[in-house]
Write a structure and sequence with these properties.
Blueprint (H helix, E strand, L loop, with lengths): L1 E4 L3 H13 L4 E4 L8 H4 L10 E3 L5 E3 L1 H11 L11 H13 L1 H17 L7 H22 L12 H6 L6 H4 L7 H11 L2 H4 L18
Parallel strand pairs: 1-2
Antiparallel strand pairs: 1-3, 3-4
Helix pairs in contact: 1-3, 4-5, 5-6, 6-9
Length: 215
């Protein structure tokens, strides 16, 4: 199998998952939105986004969570819970994407993504909405992680990776992790994993454009 990726948050998450699982994939950098590339990638993902998992027969699977599920089943890893443990993991995936992850994304989009690609000035109203949602969701997450090291009681899971998917640039985005010691400790445990902190080692992964310093 081949995993098409970039350095953006969701493709990054797919690469980290593949490396954590030591999944049998080849990594290939891809930029479906680059000039002249759309028709090459459209048969693999009509949305023209990475990550994309390409099977040996040429068929494909797209969307990060689906790819994580497929890779975990490929190597028979409990990183993606199955059976009676799966609903608890899906609970955190669902909640996170509508709350904590969404809040991180909202703030990062304004302070990082828009500035990196010259998409316009920071929308302070959107930042305020994102930070309000961050405060609300981080309070819940802090309470849960104060009682255990990972989101699920029996150890690390894909839910932890998904919840942390927009935190690699939290300092540039100005997300106030310093106010939440349990979240900071949890994310430090994730950052200590080479599959998370050094996931692009040995890969062809062009750096993202720098974020201009605020005037």
């Amino acid at each position: 199998m081949k995993l098409l990726y970039s350095r953006n948050p969701n493709p990054r998450l797919a690469v980290a998952t593949a490396r954590y699982l030591q999944a049998p994939v080849q990594f290939e950098f891809a930029a479906p939105l680059a000039p002249g590339q759309a028709e090459r990638y459209r048969p693999l993902n009509p949305a023209l986004r990475v990550p994309i998992l390409v099977y040996d027969d040429g068929s494909s699977l797209w969307e990060t969570d689906a790819i994580a599920c497929r890779l975990a089943r490929e190597v028979r890893s409990p990183f993606w819970r199955t059976g009676m443990d799966e609903p608890a993991m899906l609970q955190w995936l669902s909640w996170g994407k509508q709350n904590f992850v969404r809040a991180c994304d909202m703030v990062q989009f304004e302070y990082v993504t828009k500035q990196r690609y010259g998409l316009g000035p920071v929308d302070r109203g959107e930042v305020a909405k994102g930070l309000a949602l961050f405060a609300e969701s981080a309070a819940l997450l802090e309470e849960q992680l104060a009682a255990r090291p990972w989101l699920l009681r029996d150890g690390i899971s894909y839910a932890d990776f998904r919840m942390a998917s927009f935190l690699p640039h939290h300092q540039i985005a100005g997300l106030p992790l310093h106010d939440y010691p349990a979240i900071r400790a949890w994310y430090a445990r994730i950052e200590a994993l080479p599959a998370w902190s050094d996931l692009f080692a040995g890969l062809d992964a062009p750096e993202l454009p720098p974020v201009p310093q605020a005037a």
